[in-house]
Amino acid sequence: MTATLTLPPPASTERTKTRLLELVKRHGPQTAQDLAARLEVSIPAARRHLCDLQDQGLLESRTERPGGRGRPQHVFALTDRGEAAFPKTYSSLCVDVLRHIEALYGAGAVLEVLGARNTEIAGRLRPELPAAAPLGERVQTLVAHLTEHGFDAAAYEIDGQWHLIQHNCPNLTVARQYAQLCAAESTLYAELLGVPVARDTRIACGQGTCHYRIG
For tag attachment on the chain, is the N or C end more exposed, with fewer CB atoms within 10 Å? Predict the structure, then answer.
């Protein structure tokens, strides 16, 4: 009887799968066709990688209407396990601390703690975002700071309004249990930029990005 030697998958295959996960993370739920185009591979090749990633529990398939309209289509999104493959910070410790604060002093105390944190962060960043600077310049400075801290942020302007996108939430475990963290984040951005900030989507709610409208 001849033994069968199982070789590890080629490095290029693993790089393609990693890139595929990064695309879903950055752009949100994607169709196989969209991913094939972004990766510049055939649709059958993309589907093979997607099936492997589903088997590993990193991706899930679901049906969505693009933009809330049109015909339903099958898209691939990150599972919790897939999300965990990307950087997260201080999650379990922070959740434990906030839980104890809430148990000892009430839910309002959590907001007070997050408010004090905002005050400290704003004090550090305010000199880098002077009110006299153009709004676009201040937004891009904030984007650079957020990206440095793991948010994979970007900004763009449409019809005179700025939009801030966060492709990663380094505090996802905390944000899922304490919506106050996301509320404090919006408040901090508005304070630093000196204009109203409204959030349209939230990673902690299962959406692909955190999307803020500025001004």
Answer: N
Indicate whether 7 belongs to any domain.
no
Number of domains forming the structure of the chain: 2
Longest dimension (CA), the chain: 79
**Residue 2 resides in a domain:** no
What are phi and psi for residue 163, nearest 5 degrees?
A: -125, 135
**Per-residue model confidence as pLDDT tens for the chain (215 residues):** 444 444 444 457 788 888 899 899 888 889 999 999 999 999 999 999 999 999 999 999 988 875 556 678 889 999 888 887 776 655 677 788 888 988 999 878 888 888 888 888 888 899 999 999 999 999 999 999 998 888 899 999 999 999 999 999 888 888 888 888 899 899 999 999 999 999 999 999 988 899 999 98
Is 95 in the same domain as 80?
no
Q: Which of 172, 3, 190 shows the shortest CA–CA distance to 94?
A: 172
Cα angle at 163 between 25 and 197, to 5 degrees? 110
Residue where one domain finishes, among candidates 51, 84, 117: 84
Residues 109 and 187 in one domain: yes
Task: Give the span between the Cα atoms of 5 and 128, in whole angstroms.
Answer: 59
Structural domain containing residue 55: 15-84
Is the Cβ–Cβ distance between 32 and 211 less than 8 Å? no
Report which residue type is found at 3: A
